[in-house]
Amino acid sequence: MSDRVTRAGLQVAAELAEFIEEQALPGTDVGADAFWQGLSDLAHEFGPRNAALLAKREDIQGQIDAWHIANRDKPHDHEAYKSFLQEIGYLLPEGDDFEVDTANTDPEIANVPGPQLVVPITNARYALNAANARWGSLYDAFYGTDAMGVLPPKGGYDKGHGARVIARARVFLDESFPIEGLSHADARRYHVQGGALLVDEKLLSDPAKFVGYRGHPKAPDAILLQNNGLHVELVFDRTHVIGAHDQAGLADVRLESAVSAIMDCEDSVACVDAEDKVQAYRNWLGLMRGDLQESFEKGGKQVTRALNADLTYTGPDGGDVSIKGRALLLVRNVGHLMSNPAILLKDGSEIFEGLMDAMVTVLIAKHDLAKTAGNRNSHHGSVYVVKPKMHGPEEVAFADETFDRVEAVLGLPRHTVKLGIMDEERRTTVNLKECIRAAKSRVAFINTGFLDRTGDEIHTSMEAGPFSRKDFIKRKAWIGGYENRNVDIGLECGLSGKAQIGKGMWAMPDMMAAMIETKIEHPKAGANCAWVPSPTAATLHALHYHKVDVFAVQAKLRKGGRRAHVDTVLEVPLATYQKWSKEQITREVENNAQGILGYVVRWVDAGVGCSKVPDINDVGLMEDRATCRISSQHIANWLHHEVISEGEVMEIMKRMAEVVDRQNAGDASYVAMTPGFDGIAFKAACDLVFEGRVQPSGYTEPVLHRRRLELKASA
C-alpha cells in the first residue's frame, strides 16, 4: 500500500488523494475540503448502517439454514416455508400499487430499446470500444462471424461470402424499411427530393422512416433511416471496394447498436486497492470529460483510439439532425459488501467501497453535467449508477439515501443520480415491487442476471439438500417465474417509457448464429435492453429490436395483466432424482472446477476480472465473478451433502489445473499451477470451493480480494 495522507479524519492512499485533488475535482465547483469532509461524514455515518445491513443478511441466512435443517427429512411444505419466510421478514407484504416518478431520463433509457454492453472500466481500450459501439457495421458483423451459419474462409476477402453478406443485409432492409413495389436488392439509386427519400423513384412504404442524409441530395454520401427507435445508416461510396461493385454504390449498412453501455467497477474488474481504484476512476473521468484515449499496436501499426463524435445529417426539412455517436454510459458501483484499503476510517477500519464509489463516480460525472453543448453523455442532466447485489428494499432504501447525501455534498439537485437495481438476489426478486418503491424517484433500470441469481439461490437454500446439475437448474420452473416476474412488476410500477427493463448476458461471443436464433426472446419478453459480450454482438442483437416492437409487447403485457407468481420463484431447484452415476458426478464437478480455475488464475495472477475463458470443451465463454459464484456454490453444495468427497474434489481440481495450464500454454506471462499446486491462484480457487458454504451470500469477492492482495504484496 502506498503512503497515506490525512483528509478530514480519513487516512487516504496518497495516489488516490492526488487523483481526486489534481484530476477529479478541477473543473467541478466542489472544493477539496468540502469533498473530503463530505466523504468522511458519509463513511462514518453510513458505514455502521451498512454493516448492520450485512449483519441482517447473515442473521436471516442463519434462520433459513436452521429451518431447512429442521425440516430436511420431511416432505417439503411450501406453505409452511412461505409462512416462515414472512415471519422472519424475508418475504415482505406488498404495498399498494404505484408508479415510479423518475424524471429526466435520457432517450436511451426511456424510449430507445436496444443492446447494452457491460465492460471493465479498468481497461481503457474496452471502455472506448464499448462507448463507440453505438454504431457498428452490419457487413462486418455478418462477414466476420458465424452469424450466417458459417465462418468466412481463411485468407483475404472472399467474394462469395461477401456476396452472401450483402444479400442478407438487403433482406434486413426489406424487412425493416420496405419500398413500395421494389426490393433493396434491385435498387440502383437512392436520392432525396422534396424532403423525401426516393429509391429508383419509389417511396418507402413508411416515408416517416427517412430521417436525414449527408452529402448532396441527388447523390448522398449517407442516408439515415429509423425503425422502432433505432437508426440505420446506408453508406454510399463508389470508390470503396464494396461500393464500387454495388449497383447502387452501397458500401456499408451501419446499425445503431449498443444504445447504452455499463462501465463496470464491480464484477468484471479486479480492484483491490488504491492503485486499482485510481485506474478505474481515471478511465471514468476520461469518459465523462470526453478526452479518454488509448494507444496500442494493431497489425504492426500504432493506433490511437478516442471517443467518437456525434453525427450530423440534413433532415427532410433542410435543418440539421444531430445523432449521438456513442453509447449512453452508466457506471456500475460495487455493492454493499466489500471494503477497500484505499481509505481508512478514524478507527483504522477500511471504508465501505460502495460508499467511496458513490461519492467519487458521481463527482467525476459532474464533468459531463457541466457541459452545455457538444458531445455529452446525458443531455437531460442525469447520472446513471447501477447498484448490484442488494438484498431487499431496506438495502435499496439505503442506496437511495446514500445518493441523497452524495448529491447534497456535491451540490447537485436531488435525484440527479438515477439508480439501476440489479434483480440478482432472491430477497430482491421476491420483494421487487417494494425494492422499486424504495427508490421510486431514482429507478432507471432493473434487470435479471441468471448466474448471480442462481448462485444466491444455491447459497440461500444450501441446507435444503443437493441441487440439480447446472443444466437442469435452468430447466426448473423458478427461472421462468423469475424472468417473467421481473418484467411484470417493472411494467406494473410504470417503468415503460421511463426506465430500462433488462435481461442478462449472452456468454458465448464466438457463437453469433446461436445468439441470433435465441436472443430475440429477450425483446419478445418485453425487455427493452439486454446484455451482449462485444460490439459485434451488439450490432447483430440490434436486428432483434428491428423485428420486435418492444413497447408494443410491453403494452400488450400490461393490458393482459400477467403477473408471475412468487410461489413459483420460491420453488427451490433441488435434485428430485439423485441417483447420478459416478461419471455424471465427476463430469459436473469437472465442468465447474475447470471454469473456476480458468477464471481465478487470471483474476489473481493478472488482475483480469473478465475475459473470454475456454471451457472444458475449449469453447470460449465470457466469465466474470457471477459465473465463478455459481460454479463454486454448486460444488460447495455437493460437498456439503456428500454427493462427492473433499478428496475427490481436490483430485479433480488438480486435474483441471492441468487442463487450464494447457489452455494458457501460448501466453508467455502465464504462471502454471502445475505441478506444484502451491500458487496463490490455485489456493484461491480451492478456497472458493472448500470454504464456499461459509462465504457471505456465497460471494467470491472476499476470497479473490484477499488472495489478490496477497499476490501483490509478495510481488
Mean pLDDT over the residues: 97
Radius of gyration: 26 Å
Distance between the termini: 12 Å
Specify the helix fraction band. Answer: 40-55%
CATH class of the largest domain: Alpha Beta
Query: Might you state the CATH topology name of the largest domain?
Result: TIM Barrel
Percent of residues in β-strands:
15-25%
DSSP E strands, number: 26
| Side-by-side strand order of the widest sheet | 3-12-17-20-21-22-23-24
Multimeric state = single chain
The CATH homologous superfamily of the largest domain: Malate synthase, domain 3
Give a short overview.
The chain is α/β, with parallel strands linked by helices and 715 residues long.
Give a structural overview:
Involved in the glycolate utilization. Catalyzes the condensation and subsequent hydrolysis of acetyl-coenzyme A (acetyl-CoA) and glyoxylate to form malate and CoA. GO terms for molecular function: magnesium ion binding; malate synthase activity. One of its GO terms (cellular component) is cytosol. It is found in: Cytoplasm. The protein is an alpha/beta fold. It has three domains: 85-134 and 259-287 and 304-569, TIM Barrel, CATH 3.20.20; 137-256, Malate synthase G - maily-beta sub-domain (Beta Complex), CATH 2.170.170.11; 582-714, Malate Synthase G, Chain: A, Domain 4. The protein is 44% helix and 18% strand. The strands form seven sheets. The chain has an eight-stranded parallel beta barrel with strand order 3-12-17-20-21-22-23-24, surrounded by five helices. A five-stranded antiparallel β-sheet has the order 4-11-10-9-8. The protein is globular and about 75 Å long.
